[in-house]
Design a protein that fits this description.
transmembrane helix, transmembrane, 8 helices, 63% helix, DoxX family membrane protein
Length: 166
């Protein structure tokens, strides 16, 4: 069977569940970005300097360069806001899901929940390998595989005649 002829039909409950998951993750991203945006003097410098993961030297180097830190701060604030808004309203959600996974992977790699790395102030709770960043990455991956914005988001109006699911 040709892949283009295959039409996926979700039940009402599946659409609700996928949309609800997308909106919840969108809200989380949006809120995190807005908090950073509206907190006077917010910067990722302390977070990056305290990094303990395999990319710690890279993250510390970013924190020690004023221009790179400025770029990292902008990507953090606006990246979180734009991913969150996209998921929340279902607009161009596929590329923003991928960007969300990328952001979360940086957070995961900066403070991975691996034994022997020691505790730090930027991690909430006690985890081993699996933490909220990894779970949210997996949820975004599921949403990429089972998209809903073409049904219950603004994408349904934009890509009405387009067979691709953004």
């Amino acid at each position: 069977m040709n892949k283009q002829n295959l039409k996926v039909i979700y039940s009402s409950w599946q659409i609700f569940a996928l949309t609800f998951l997308r909106v919840l993750i969108g809200w989380h991203f949006l809120y995190e970005g807005l908090v950073k945006f509206y907190t006077p003097g917010w910067t990722a410098k302390g977070y990056l300097l305290g990094s303990v993961g395999p990319l710690a030297p890279v993250f510390r180097g970013i924190a020690q360069s004023a221009s790179m830190l400025h770029v990292a701060d902008i990507f953090n604030e606006w990246g979180l806001v734009l991913v969150g808004l996209s998921l929340f309203i279902g607009l161009l959600s596929k590329p923003f899901k991928l960007f969300g996974i990328t952001l979360l992977s940086f957070y995961y790699l900066s403070y991975p929940p691996f034994s022997g790395l020691g505790a730090n102030a930027h991690v909430e709770g006690n985890y081993w390998i699996v933490n909220k960043n990894l779970i949210e990455m997996a949820a975004l991956f599921v949403l990429i595989l089972f998209p809903s914005s073409h049904i219950s988001g603004i994408d349904r109006f934009i890509f009405k005649n387009n067979k691709s699911k953004m």
